[in-house]
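Technical note accompanying the year-one report. For the benefit of new consortium partners, we illustrate the data format agreed upon in the data management plan: each record pairs a sequence with a structure-token string. No post-processing was applied to the example shown here.
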Amino acid sequence: MQPAPTPCLSVGILVQCRPGFEPDASLELQAAARAARLEGCSVDVANSGFTLFQLNAPVAHDALRRRFDLSRLIFSRQACQLVGSIDDLPEKDRLSPLMDAITALGERFSALLLETPDTNDGKEQSGFLRRFGPLLDDALTQAGLLRTDSPHLPRLHVFLASPKRALLGISLASEGSAWPMGIPRLRMPKDAPSRSTLKLAEAIAGLLTEEEQRATLRPGLQAVDLGASPGGWTWQLVSRGLRVTAIDNGPMAPSVVATGLLEHLRVDGFTWKPRKPVEWMVCDMVEQPSRIAPLMAEWVASGRCRRSIFNLKLPMKRRYDEVERCRALIDQRMRAGNIKYTLRIKHLYHDREEVTCYLTRR
């Protein structure tokens, strides 16, 4: 009789982030771990593109999931529970030790995410990943460990921190990004007037559920774009059939004007108000986050709009502290109106020194 496999235990939390944001991701991890009453320490290396929170004692991953919500991490592009590592992968045969380590976990998986840091060193492994990924996928399938027809199973992350070091992690689809490394494969629309359009496209895909997208981004709904010029964010809305009032002293691109769904007003975005409530207000104004956050909260709290997506341009230092300050400003306004609300914040792939937020009444 075969002995029962050793239960899979989580030994830490792995967060992939934009290189240079490791201190912010680390501060956030430590704060979340304290709130979840998890003991351990944060380990990060400058410009490595990832950070770890190592637990003092292993925890069953279901128990950890109940206490620690990976999906709420702001500076995480991708996150998972760390369940194992291989620190000396051979150069010629990486498949065998990886299969041995994955098999020893005693788990089956719904998907394989083969990932590296988003750094120059990580990108040098891209050619290897294209060749190796199908081999590992096939080996897992043949061993009965990969069941793509069972979405309820956890996903397997194989994170190559370096050519010789692999970290093994697990996550549910609801906890992390659907894209490996949290990098969406979005094409630049040919008629969009600026690359900023990809920020809103990623925000819609990453911050809203599919049901929310269908229900709130329907043709005929009204929207406002504060700081709209030249129209990258407006384009995302009019391309879905929404009618948009664009607020900016700058010009709007002809491709956006030609849709016939645009009203352009050259007025101050901080003082202008719509005559009637609208479904959406989006905002990518370049301004201090401590000015933007209260303005966004006021739009939603006062009923000018039902929901909003906006960016907060962060300072070079103490970015995590600034996000928490803005979160508190929003909460203060919503509490003053006794308004129940949902606020989701994420440092998206197409963001740089900013985070993107989704705010709506419940």
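Partners are asked to follow this layout when depositing records. The radius of gyration is 22 Å.
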